[in-house]
């Protein structure tokens, strides 16, 4: 495939604009130029996409399907250009046509079909699969409304709908010929055939048409283009004619509306679970359409009987959200392919692999039996039978575990427990960082681990270094290339060669220069967004992630209030200036999380305008945190706040993005922070606070009393009293809930317990920052070790240990 030069790009875009809009390029808007550029990209992609599909078909390739309710892809224009080897050329072409590349790229709306880490992981995995030439595709939902847009009004989060499809989305292709019907409700009738087998008839169902929209997933400079297939819900037949009964007509409209709700919006809860019926419908809609589609393609392309399904297909389920795919495959094999239970079960349990993302109890999915029975009667019957056989198996073959049946059973206390279903039916169960997998094995899923030790394995998360280094930080990328060449682009572990330069003052200066330029760019962005000037010589200390109690944005705010109080006492305090940067969305129904957002903004409004803190403290809350905002902030960060209560953050991936861009981690020994620590050592990051075992021990045996710390530590008492007495509020009811949560609910996330060590870690970080060369050396060492966290490594491990697929 010939790569296009800047000249080629200019010529093709010009032609497109002339013919499509009948305009001279000079007269075209950024929007028109964006669509022209996307069209040129699509022209390049089309033949590669077709060829990739033909190759998989003709070689009868074994393929992996990544099933996920979320794909947080963000914008694609730049990453598509990068992977096609044309990003620099496109930048040049746009400039020569008289446009700012950035203004053209930002015409594209972020595809925010995910909440946070879990959805972003799915997007990184697709990029790595394609870039490593693996046959692997995503199945998801084409939500008409993605994650809400956040505005901050008077310090409060306000949610606006994210209608991201208002303008045409240039990367998707509607594939009506691949549509299929998904059925809900109805009556299941069984009758015995002459030969004794059962025939299942599922009648009087509500039918929904699932129409796929395909998005190409372009590999990095390798001509592989895989597919992300996103399902949209539509009425099965066209609209009725409007000539007849009015009532009938409106009833029908109502019905169509309720169908379209199925792919209407993304649930905005991250790491928490809501037992809403519409969410259950969405889950079944995704898995039924996807599994039907896999079987259809398998039969068409491979011409094998369903017995051979596990040889050609492996399905990875991203958390339990798509775990109804298990009974759905059983249903198809038995009811449509006429296999018996044992054969169907044998096939099913060789196909599924399950990734667990959390041990937070509030995030574990369970569905009320009654809801599932009504909505999915046949699926419920199958789960019931899986459960029955599983429990019998324990009763007869694992007598020592008989008394554990209530905590192992898939159906118990009127609920269907989805994680248990996923474990029982999968040949692989993985956690997402070493510490998380160990907690699963030893605590959360101990009983299952004892039953099936061979199923449990770890796959530490990763991020695509193509987007999160090469695309977002071109200056750092080209500096690294100048110093160690570009082998690391294909083998990110080679970044380790940077270590040779850790004592090279000249090199360290160059890294410092790049960071400063990135900081200046972010400072300009902040000024333009918020009208606030930040000191580009101050320490950029960043915490961007979903707002959740366990992530402890509150600990960060307490530190800021502490510094503020210190400065008020002593305005001449010798202190390196700091800029604290936040970005975070709270689930709309998460009251305490919203209070923390309000608190951050309130503290910002006080600190930013106080003469005693002038030039020393700034607090910035950037609204609407999403992938594109992360891309702007991360290259400029110096301190990466990864301060979750130990044992709570399964892995984290933000931590990896920061490390790869040279920020130093201020963190607890949690999730993948532990693995960063294993690589760079404690001398190259700032570790503080309770360890996971200590936290788990407190939860189990008690012994922590937040009130004691309040009583003993003046700094802590001062801060809490400020929250309680209205010093940070326009009226004194504000922030009382935070105060009560800490003192009357005994600080469930150990904010007070970790306060002092956190302050000390920050004091140490400040002292290191004064030694510029030392800081730069630490930063370089972090970048050098960050190759491990490329999702290419993660995907290679999934391939070797779970998927057993071959590159093409
Ligand atoms: C990487 C990323 C996340 C995950 O961040 P954590 O710090 O690991 O929670 C969430 N949202 C967006 C937009 C991201 O890019």
Automatic annotation (TrEMBL):
Cofactor(s) essential for the protein: pyridoxal 5'-phosphate
Q: What is its EC number?
A: 2.4.1.1
Q: GO annotations under biological process? A: glycogen catabolic process
Q: Which reaction does it catalyse?
A: [(1->4)-alpha-D-glucosyl](n) + phosphate = [(1->4)-alpha-D-glucosyl](n-1) + alpha-D-glucose 1-phosphate
Q: Which UniProt keywords apply?
A: Allosteric enzyme, Carbohydrate metabolism, Cytoplasm, Glycosyltransferase, Pyridoxal phosphate, Transferase
Q: Which domain of life is it from?
A: Bacteria
Q: Glycosyltransferase as a keyword?
A: yes
Report the locations given in the UniProt record: Cytoplasm
What is a single Pfam family found in this protein's UniProt entry? Phosphorylase
The enzyme's main class, written as a single word, is transferase
The GO molecular function terms of this record are: glycogen phosphorylase activity; pyridoxal phosphate binding
Positions bearing N6-(pyridoxal phosphate)lysine:
657
Q: Keyword Transferase on this protein? A: yes
Q: Which GO terms describe its cellular component?
A: cytoplasm
What PROSITE patterns does the database record attribute to this sequence? PHOSPHORYLASE (PS00102)
The UniProt function text for this chain reads: Allosteric enzyme that catalyzes the rate-limiting step in glycogen catabolism, the phosphorolytic cleavage of glycogen to produce glucose-1-phosphate, and plays a central role in maintaining cellular and organismal glucose homeostasis. Phosphorylase is an important allosteric enzyme in carbohydrate metabolism. Enzymes from different sources differ in their regulatory mechanisms and in their natural substrates. However, all known phosphorylases share catalytic and structural properties.
Q: Which family does it belong to?
A: Belongs to the glycogen phosphorylase family.
Name of the molecule in the record: Alpha-1,4 glucan phosphorylase
Q: Which organism is it from?
A: Oceanobacillus indicireducens
Output the lineage of the source organism.
Answer: Bacteria, Bacillati, Bacillota, Bacilli, Bacillales
């Amino acid at each position: 495939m010939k790569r296009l030069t800047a000249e080629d790009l200019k010529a093709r875009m010009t032609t497109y604009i002339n013919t499509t809009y009948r305009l001279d390029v000079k007269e075209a808007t950024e929007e028109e130029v964006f669509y022209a550029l996307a069209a040129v990209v699509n022209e390049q992609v089309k033949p590669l996409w077709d060829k990739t599909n033909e190759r998989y078909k003709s070689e009868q390739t074994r393929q992996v399907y990544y099933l996920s309710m979320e794909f947080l892809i963000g914008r694609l224009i730049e990453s598509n250009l990068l992977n096609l080897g044309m990003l620099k050329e496109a930048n040049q072409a746009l400039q020569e046509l008289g446009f700012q590349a950035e203004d053209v790229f930002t015409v594209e709306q972020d595809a925010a079909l995910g909440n946070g880490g879990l959805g972003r992981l799915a997007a990184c995995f697709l990029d790595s699969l394609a870039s490593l030439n693996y046959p692997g595709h995503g199945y998801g939902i084409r939500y008409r409304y993605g994650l809400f847009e956040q505005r901050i009004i008077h310090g409060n989060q306000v949610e606006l709908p994210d209608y991201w499809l208002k303008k045409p989305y240039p990367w998707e292709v509607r594939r009506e010929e691949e549509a299929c019907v998904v059925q809900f409700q109805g009556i299941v009738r069984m009758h015995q055939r002459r030969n004794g087998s059962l025939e299942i008839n599922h009648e009087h169902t509500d039918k929904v048409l699932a129409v796929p929209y395909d998005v190409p997933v372009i590999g990095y400079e390798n001509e592989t283009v895989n597919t992300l297939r996103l399902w949209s819900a539509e009425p099965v037949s066209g609209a009725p004619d409007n000539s007849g009964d009015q009532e009938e007509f409106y009833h029908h409209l109502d019905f169509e509306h309720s169908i379209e709700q199925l792919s209407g919006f993304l649930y905005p809860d991250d790491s928490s679970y809501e037992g809403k019926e519409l969410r259950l419908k969405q889950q079944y809609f995704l898995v039924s359409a996807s599994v039907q589609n896999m079987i259809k393609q398998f039969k068409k392309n491979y011409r094998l009987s369903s017995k051979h399904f596990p040889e050609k297909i492996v399905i990875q389920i991203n958390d339990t959200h798509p775990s109804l795919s298990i009974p759905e495959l059983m249903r198809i094999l038995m009811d449509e392919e006429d296999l018996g239970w044992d054969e169907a079960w044998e096939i099913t349990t060789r196909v599924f692999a399950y990734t667990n993302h959390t041990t937070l109890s509030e995030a574990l999915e369970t569905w009320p039996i009654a809801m599932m029975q009504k909505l999915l009667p046949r699926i419920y019957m199958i789960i019931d039978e899986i459960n029955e056989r599983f429990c019998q198996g324990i009763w007869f073959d694992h007598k020592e575990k008989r008394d554990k049946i209530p905590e192992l059973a898939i159906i118990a206390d009127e609920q269907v427990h989805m994680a248990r279903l996923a474990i029982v039916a999968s040949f692989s169960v993985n956690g997402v960082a070493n510490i998380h997998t160990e907690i699963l094995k030893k605590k959360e899923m101990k009983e299952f681990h004892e039953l099936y030790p061979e199923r449990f394995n770890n796959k530490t998360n990763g991020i695509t270094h193509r987007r999160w280094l090469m695309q977002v930080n071109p200056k750092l990328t080209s500096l690294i290339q100048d110093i160690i060449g570009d082998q690391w682009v294909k083998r990110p572990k080679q970044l380790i060669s940077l270590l040779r330069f850790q004592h090279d003052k000249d090199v360290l200066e160059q890294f410092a220069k790049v960071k400063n330029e990135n900081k200046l760019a972010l400072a300009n962005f902040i000024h333009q967004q918020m009208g606030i000037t930040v000191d580009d010589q101050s320490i950029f200390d960043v915490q961007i992630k979903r707002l959740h109690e366990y992530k402890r944005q509150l600990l960060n705010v307490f530190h800021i209030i502490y510094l503020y109080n210190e400065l008020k006492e002593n305005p001449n305090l010798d202190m390196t200036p700091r800029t604290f940067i936040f970005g975070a969305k709270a689930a709309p129904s998460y009251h305490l999380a919203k209070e923390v957002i309000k608190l951050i903004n309130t503290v910002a409004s006080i600190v930013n305008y106080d003469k005693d803190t002038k030039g020393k403290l700034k607090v910035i809350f950037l609204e609407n945190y999403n992938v594109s905002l992360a891309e702007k902030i991360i290259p400029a960060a110096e301190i990466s706040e990864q301060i979750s209560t130990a044992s709570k953050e399964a892995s984290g991936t933000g931590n990896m993005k920061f490390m790869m861009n040279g920020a130093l981690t201020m963190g607890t020994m949690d999730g993948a922070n532990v693995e960063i620590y294993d690589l760079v050592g404690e001398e190259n990051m700032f570790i503080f606070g309770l360890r996971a075992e200590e936290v788990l021990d407190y939860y189990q045996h008690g012994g922590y009393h937040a009130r004691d710390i309040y009583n003993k530590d003046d700094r802590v008492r001062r801060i809490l009293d400020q929250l309680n007495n209205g010093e940070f509020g326009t009226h004194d009811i504000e922030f009382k809930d935070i105060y009560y949560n800490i003192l009357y609910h005994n600080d469930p996330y150990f904010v007070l317990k970790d306060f002092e060590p956190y302050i000390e870690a920050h004091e140490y970080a400040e002292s290191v920052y004064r030694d510029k060369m030392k800081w730069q050396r630490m930063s370089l060492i972090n970048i050098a070790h960050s190759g491990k966290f490329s999702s290419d490594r993660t995907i290679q491990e999934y391939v070797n240990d779970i998927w057993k697929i071959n590159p093409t």
